[in-house]
Amino acid sequence: MGKFLSWMLPTGASTFVGDIDWIYYLILAVTGIAFVLVELALVVFLIRYRKRPGRKATYVHGSTRAEIVWTGVTAVVVVIIGLLSAPAWNKIKGREGVPPNAMPIGIEAKQFEWNVTYPGPDGKLGTADDFTIRGQLHVPVDRPTVAMLTSQDAIHSFFVPSFRIKQDAVPGMHIRVWFQPTKVGEYELGCAELCGLGHYRMRAVVTVHTQQDYDRWVASQAHSVAQR
Amino acid sequence: MAHAAAMHDDVMLPPSSRAAGAGVYNEKLGMWIFLGSEVMFFTALIGTYVILRFAHPDAWIGHPRQTPLNIPVTAVNTFLLICSSVTMVKAFAAAQDGLQQALRLWLLATAMIGATFVGVQVYEYTHLIEKGFVPSQGLFGSTFYTMTGFHGFHVTIGVICMTFVTIKAFLGKYSQTDHRGVEVIGLYWHFVDLVWIILFTIVYLI
Amino acid sequence: MATTATDTSAYTHDHGHAHVDDRPFIRKYIFSTDHKIIGIQFLIMSLTFLLLGGTLAMVMRWQLGFPGKPLPGGTLLPETYTNNGVVLPEFYNSAVTMHGTFMVFFAIMPLLVGVFGNYLIPLKIGAPDMAFPRINMASFWTAVPAGLLMLAGFFVEGGSAAAGWTSYAPLSARSDLTGVHLGQIFWCLSLIILGLSSIMGSFNYITTVINMRAPGMNWFRLPLSIWALFVTACLVLLAIPVLSGAAILLLFDQTIGTHFFDPQAGGQPLLWQHLFWFFGHPEVYILILPAMGMASDIIANGARKPIFGYTSMVLAIISIGFLGWGVWGHHMFQSGMNPTLGTTFMISTLLIAVPSAIKTFNWLGTIWQGNITFHVPMLHALAFVSMFVIGGLSGVFMAASPFDIYIHDTYFIVAHLHYVLFGGSLFAIFAAVTYWYPKMFGRMMNPFWGRVHFWLTLVFYNFTFFPMHQLGLHGHMRRIYDPTQYAFLREMQPVNQFISISAFCLFATQFLFAANFILSWFKGEKAPNNPWLDNGLEWTLPSPPPHGNFATVPTVYRGPYEYSSPHSDLDYIPQNVPTPGGAGAAHPQPAGD
User: Fold this and answer.
1) Above 90 in pLDDT, residue C562?
2) Rounded Cα–Cα distance for residues B30 and B98 (Å)
3) Is C431 a residue whose pLDDT tops 50?
4) Are B69 and B128 in contact (CB under 8 A)?
């Protein structure tokens, strides 16, 4: 039953939870109050002012003062929401928001899979020890990772709900998307832009390792690459 | 039967037995408003050209001067189209003055120059296609044919309507008190001319 | 040259245009130039597409609620659609696309603009017909082939368009990516043709409202339904050509090898999105403004009270019309568009909430201290307000661009759009159809079944769409054929099932409305001229009005919302009734406070 009614966000596992979730709860509170006030007023008015014998409606055309008040309050509230939200937007999507020490990876979306290119032990993309794996995103915990995202064919969308991150992958464009996981574990990546018949199964597994385990994993992958 | 005509004597005035409106008769107001939609249509096409060419210059493949476009011929064609707007103005003036013969001849001239413009454009197209400059030839091919093609389509519709109006003029259907059709086709014609001047500048010259 | 006569004494010699139409059946009912007949033609066409769009939704909901189970009746469908009755991904993507396409372009838009724009504008402004009756006829008969072409997509190889109603390139441009070739081409062609129909309608409506209002019907005595339809027509005039342009570019990429959206040749996929949404955002205001306008008329009538803040309501409609052009980028926050642009669109989007909020408060102000009659149209109009509030509030979440990162392309968006389009537009349409049915057909719809339909719809509608907020908050993506592919979504399947079952009940309930509509046409109680005791000019005429509408041109003395006025013993005063004790308009007293 809880899942039917709950307005809580599912547990997250990246720093963006701290940047985004509170904005949601703020808006939930504001719109929740507005919702209750408006719907309650509606119901109360419908009951109180229903037609009964001997009653007449009040012949009034409006109230300039009321208009000014409710217009002003609404405008102020929405502007405040905007001002409060802007920093998080710049941090997550802005070019300057990407932490300088973020580990670079490449993600290429195509019908219907995600291909992740890792920089290998030297930590640099575009060198000989890079390797590409399909359908698996491995990252270390508590460190930022920045992906250069692109697509081979249609527009796809890189979506990891637990990390609160989403970015369209556009053919012909290379778009930076970064995140910093906060919890070791396995998560899911899904495609969030209709991309054809296999859109529904364009899934990948995201594994967040401890730094140690991650280094070990990289070494073992590089070892297999070297052996080919 | 036109409802507007039944309501008052002078059909080239706004309907008199109505609340104050735009101050012009329905057909003229309607044409102006319709032209607003045409502005948006050409803005979408021309805007696409501008964005593809100037916002992504590194991605733009093919510069206008590297194409086989014949700028001198098109410049003459542009001049012709402008002349046709002049003949259109003369036609409308003749209608306002009740000069039937002048009206007929100026309308005929407008229609014929318009048809010539279309003819020259079609000739240009065949010439370009022969040289391998086709819609699938890079972004310039794509945008060039789309913009000039739809403009040409609009001129063609204009020529057809102009012919229709010219025939009506020869049949004596327009008078000093009712020449709405002449004014309305004139508005459309000037618009089509204006779009061409913009297109010619942006596509051929810049 | 003589100037336009403004002295009302000159009007008295003018006669109206009402007359018996004795033309043959085909000129009177098929190729009619009468705005009332054309409005009813659009009504029949749109309700048919509404039914079709709803049926496609049932296919989607079946697959989402019971993935992998054979669709009832599925074995009757061709094997390109179902496999042993189980919906195939091809059919699912096609259903998703065509549900949206039919509902937006062939149901809601023509219902609001084609039906009520046509039917109400000349009647409510006191005109004999539209400015250009033959162009009006052409507008309907252009919409019909557009609809048939869209339908034809289901019957060609590869099936219908399947790239979403938003048809993003390059997916929609490349048949190797969708598996659909002709269907996508038909989609573009159909919308180009429909665009011509809409543009014809729009300049007709605008010319008519500007130039053909009856004497005394000045701008600030127009009903809000007409204001809304007028501003909507302006939006249609200016936005639809942009869609036409975009569809032409896409069509050319699909057919003659152009490269507008092809990144390998320097084209820009995002260009499609900018063009589409530059049209698309004004489009959503096209889909809500007439609903707001008609709801205002009905609420004032039901409450027996003047509209609260008429001038603010007009200014809100106009400002929505203007501001709607500056927010399109909020559909593209996650598209790879420059993030700084994203911030500007966030601000403009948050601001556009203000005029809609003003309207909501004014509707509340209208029923406050009213004397409310709960006739069936009033029930639907009140539900419109209530449900639109939910849809509008949910929009705030996505306006805040950082949170949109999470909910973009999830069911939270689907919840929002259905709350405004169904909870908003469709309830207003039910209200309007029921309200103006007597004027259109001379008969009343059955009120008992009207109430049953209303309550069942309200309940099943909320059961269907409210839990979609929860699905979206959980991360459930849009347009996915099988959610159970994802572990994090499997636990939400009971919600999907609940939604699907509610949706089936909601769909079934609509047959009550359809039956009421059809049966009342033949057997409904005969309608008086003014069953709702409304002030509008159309209610001074017989039901249905004669061809040419008014026998004498009406003169208007006041606005349309003079209910419960001290100037009359009745609780309403039609706009064309002179005030006792003096000619000329009764100026309402300004509100105290």
Assistant:
1) yes
2) 24
3) yes
4) yes
pLDDT digits (tens, 9 = 90+) for C466-506: 999 999 999 999 999 999 999 999 999 999 999 999 999 99
Q: Rounded to whole angstroms, how far apart are CA atoms B190 and B88?
A: 8
Give the integer Cα–Cα distance in Å for C154 and C160: 5
> C71 near C82, Cβ under 8 Å?
yes
Same domain, A216 and A202: yes
Task: Enumerate residues 6+ apart whose C-beta is below 8 A from A210.
Answer: A140, A141, A184
Contact residues for C21 (Cβ-Cβ < 8 A; gap 6+)? C28, C34, C546, C547
Q: Sketch out chain C's domains with CATH numbers.
A: 24-540 (1.20.210.10)
Give the residue from C350, C406, C342, C470 showing the smallest Cα distance to A24: C406
Beta strands A156-160 and A145-151, pairing class: unpaired
**Distance (Å, whole) CA B29 – CA B14:** 9
Confidence band, pLDDT 50/70/90 cuts, at residue C10: very low
- Assess whether A88 and A114 both reside in one domain: no
DSSP structure class, residue B160? H
Structure tokens at C514: 């359809």
Domain boundary among A79, A95, A111: A95
Whether residue A68 is found in the same domain as residue A140:
no
CA distance linking residue A56 with residue C392, whole number of Å: 32
A60–C contact, CB cutoff 8 A: yes
Which residue is listed with tokens 């809580």?
A8
CB contact under 8 A, C470 and A7: yes
The CATH number linked to A14 is 1.10.287
Asked whether A109 and A191 are in contact (CB, 8 A), the reply is: yes
Strand partners, A132: A117
Q: Over 90: is that where the pLDDT of C144 sits?
A: yes
Which residues lie across from C572 on neighbouring strands? C563
All domains in chain B, ordered by first residue: 25-205 (1.20.120.80)
- Residue ending a domain, among A95, A128, A157, is A95
Cβ-contact A25, C403 below 8 angstroms: no
CB nearest C128 (choices: B3, B21, B138): B3
Mutate to test the interface with A, among C60, C93, C101, C171 (most CBs of A within 10 A): C171
| Mean pLDDT for the stretch of residues A174-201 | 97
Q: Are A39 and A190 in contact (CB under 8 A)?
A: no
Summarize the confidence of residues A116-140 as an average pLDDT: 93
Kindly state the tokens that stand for C373: 């009659």
Residues of A in contact with C470 (CB under 8 A): 3-7
Q: How far is residue C307's CA from residue C285's CA, in Å, rounded to a whole number?
A: 21
One domain for residues A68 and A121: no
Which residues 108-127 of A have a C-beta within 8 angstroms of C? 111
- Across chain A, how many H-helices and E-strands are there? 4, 10
Each residue's pLDDT tens digit, B104-134: 999 999 999 999 999 999 999 999 999 889 9
pTM of the model: 0.95
